[in-house]
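STRUCTURE:
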C-alpha cells in the first residue's frame, strides 16, 4: 500500500512518519504534500490508499480537499489530523467520508488505531472490488455460452423462443413480431489449409473469432445473430432476420470480412425464407442440404443457397464396381498391386465434374460393408482387435490448401490405409498358421491317446469352429480325418513287425477296441490289418 501525509508543518509530517508502524501495515511508499493543491496532483498520479490531512492549510485547505476526494477518489481512506476541536470540522470530515478525526498534539495509540482501521477498511473494500470484478469477468465469459446454447436449442425446440423473446430483443434487437427468417451454417469441414494450421491448437479461439467477425456485420444495424451451434462441434449458425433479399450479399460481405481478419475462407450454406420460429428446424435442414450438395472439387463460390427441389441422389460412381481388384491386391500383400487397384478407382473419380458430401458418404458406406465382408472371409468370427477400428474410404476429408477435395491426397491416404490393412492381415494370418501347425504337432505327439476336437480346443483356448475352419484351409482335410489318417499310417508301419499282435497295434495307435480298429483300417486302406500284414511281408 501507499500513503500520503498532507500538512503545511514539516514537524507534523515527521511525527506521523515516526509514529506509524508502516512495514507492519504493509505500507511501503510514503508521499508528502504541503497543501491540498499539491496533494491533489500527487493523489491523482499515485493513488495512495491512506491519506492523512490537516484542515487549515494555504492554497487549498482540508475542507475543500475532502470534497474533492469524495468526488474524484472515494476509495482512498482519509484520516484528519487537526489542531482545532471544532464540531463543524468533525461533521465535515464525517460527511465527506473521513475515517477518523485526531487532534494535535498527536496521540500515538489513537493514530495507530486509526491507521489500522483505515488499512483494514481499504483491504476489505479492495477484496470486495476484486471479487466483483472476477464475477463480472466470469459472467462475461459465461454470457456468450449461455446465449449460444439458448439459440442452439431453437433448432430442435423452436417453441422455446417465447420464454426468452424479450431478453433476445434487448440483447440482439430481435423483433418479437418477426415472421420470417433465414438460417446459414458456417462449416469448418472444408476450411483452407492456412486457417486449419493457424487454429489447430485452439478450436475455441477460432469459434470466438468467427462469431465476433460475423456479429460485427450483423449487429449494426441488427440484421442477425451468429452463434456456435452446440449440437455439432464444427458449425457456426447465423440467424438472419433482416431483409431476405439482401441475405446473400450480407453473407458474401461476411466471407470477405473473415478473409480480411484471419486470412481464411469457409463454406456457408443458407436456407430459403422460413416462418419464425417454427420453421427453424426446416431452415437448418435446408442449409445443411446446401452444404451437402456443394461441389467439393472446386471453390468458385463459398456461399451455397438451398435449391428448392433438392433431394438426395445416388452416387455418380459405384465403389463396388472397383472393389474386387482392391480386395485381391490386399489379399496378395503386394504394395504395387494395391497402388494399381487404387489408381483405377481414382482414375474413374477424376472424370467426374462434381463430387459432394453425399457421394463421399455413399462410397464410405460401401467400403465399410465390403471391408466387413472381407474380414469375415479372412478371419471368420475371430477378427483381430485392429479390424474393429473405424476406418472409412475417405479417412479424414482429403483437402488441398484451398479447402477443395484433393484426389491426389485421397489416393495417398487410401493406398497407405490399404497397405496397412494388408500388413496387419498377413501378420495375423502368419500367427494363425503358426497356431494351426502347433495343433498339428500336438496331434502327431498325442495321436495314440483318445484326443477329440473339444479337447484340442480347450488345450489351445480356441473355438472348435475356428480350429475346424483354419485346419481345413491349411491342410485340406478336417481334424478328425487327419487324426484317423495319422493313426492308419502309424498302424501300417507297426504291422510290418510280425511280433506285434493286432490288439497291441490297435492300442498303440489310440483304439481300445481291436474289432473297431480293424473296421476303420479296412475302410481306410481297403484291406484288413491281417491282409495288409500278409501282402506287406518281404
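SEQUENCE:
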Amino acid at each position: 500500500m501507499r500513503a500520503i501525509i498532507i500538512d503545511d508543518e514539516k514537524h507534523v509530517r515527521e511525527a506521523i512518519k515516526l509514529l506509524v508502524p508502516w512495514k507492519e501495515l504493509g505500507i511501503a511508499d510514503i508521499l508528502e504534500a504541503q497543501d491540498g493543491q499539491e496533494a491533489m496532483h500527487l493523489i491523482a498520479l499515485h493513488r495512495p490508499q491512506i491519506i492523512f490531512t490537516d484542515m487549515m492549510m494555504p492554497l487549498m485547505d482540508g475542507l475543500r480537499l475532502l470534497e474533492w476526494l469524495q468526488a474524484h477518489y472515494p476509495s482512498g481512506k482519509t484520516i484528519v489530523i487537526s489542531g482545532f476541536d471544532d464540531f463543524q470540522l468533525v461533521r465535515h470530515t464525517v460527511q465527506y467520508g473521513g475515517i477518523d478525526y485526531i487532534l494535535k498534539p498527536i496521540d500515538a495509540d489513537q493514530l495507530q488505531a486509526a491507521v489500522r482501521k483505515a488499512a483494514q477498511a481499504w483491504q476489505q473494500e479492495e477484496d470486495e472490488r476484486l471479487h466483483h470484478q472476477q464475477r463480472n469477468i466470469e459472467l462475461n465469459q459465461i454470457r456468450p455460452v449461455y446465449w449460444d446454447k439458448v439459440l442452439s436449442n431453437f433448432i430442435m425446440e423452436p417453441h422455446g423462443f417465447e420464454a426468452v423473446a424479450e431478453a433476445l430483443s434487448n440483447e440482439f434487437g430481435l423483433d418479437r413480431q418477426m415472421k420470417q427468417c433465414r438460417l446459414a451454417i458456417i462449416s469448418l469441414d472444408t476450411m483452407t489449409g492456412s486457417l486449419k494450421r493457424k487454429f489447430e491448437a485452439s478450436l475455441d479461439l477460432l469459434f470466438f473469432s468467427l462469431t465476433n467477425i460475423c456479429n460485427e456485420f450483423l449487429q449494426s444495424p441488427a440484421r442477425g445473430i451468429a452463434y456456435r451451434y452446440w449440437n455439432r462441434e464444427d458449425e457456426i449458425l447465423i440467424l438472419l432476420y433482416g431483409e431476405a433479399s439482401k441475405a446473400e450479399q450480407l453473407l458474401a460481405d461476411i466471407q470477405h470480412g473473415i478473409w480480411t481478419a484471419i486470412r481464411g475462407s469457409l463454406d456457408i450454406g443458407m436456407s430459403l425464407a422460413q416462418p419464425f420460429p417454427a420453421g427453424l428446424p426446416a431452415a437448418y435442414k435446408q442449409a445443411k442440404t446446401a452444404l451437402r450438395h456443394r461441389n467439393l472439387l472446386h471453390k468458385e463460390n463459398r456461399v451455397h443457397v438451398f435449391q428448392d427441389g433438392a433431394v438426395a441422389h445416388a452416387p455418380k460412381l459405384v465403389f463396388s464396381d472397383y472393389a474386387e481388384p482392391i480386395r485381391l491386391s490386399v489379399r496378395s500383400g503386394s504394395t504395387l498391386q494395391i497402388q494399381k487397384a487404387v489408381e483405377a478407382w481414382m482414375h474413374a473419380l477424376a472424370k467426374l465434374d462434381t463430387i459432394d458430401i453425399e457421394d463421399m458418404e455413399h462410397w464410405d458406406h460401401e467400403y465399410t460393408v465390403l471391408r466387413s465382408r472381407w474380414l469375415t472371409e479372412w478371419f471368420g468370427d475371430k477378427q483381430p482387435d485392429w479390424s474393429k477400428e473405424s476406418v472409412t474410404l475417405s479417412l479424414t476429408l482429403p483437402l488441398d490448401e484451398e479447402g477443395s477435395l484433393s484426389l491426389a491426397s485421397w489416393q495417398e491416404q487410401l493406398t497407405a490405409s490399404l497397405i496397412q490393412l494388408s500388413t496387419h492381415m498377413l501378420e495375423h494370418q502368419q500367427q494363425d498358421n503358426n497356431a494351426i501347425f502347433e495343433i498339428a504337432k500336438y496331434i502327431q505327439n498325442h495321436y495314440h491317446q483318445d484326443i477329440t476336437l473339444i479337447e484340442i480346443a480347450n488345450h489351445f483356448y480356441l473355438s472348435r469352429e475356428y480350429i475346424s475352419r483354419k485346419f481345413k484351409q491349411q491342410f485340406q482335410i478336417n481334424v478328425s480325418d487327419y487324426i484317423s489318417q495319422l493313426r492308419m499310417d502309424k498302424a501300417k508301419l507297426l504291422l510290418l513287425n510280425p511280433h506285434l499282435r493286432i490288439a497291441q497295434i490297435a492300442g498303440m495307435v489310440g483304439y481300445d477296441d481291436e474289432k473297431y480298429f480293424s473296421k476303420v483300417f479296412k475302410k481306410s486302406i481297403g484291406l484288413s490289418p491281417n491282409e495288409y500284414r500278409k501282402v506287406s511281408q518281404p
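REMARK: The longest strand covers residues 180-187.
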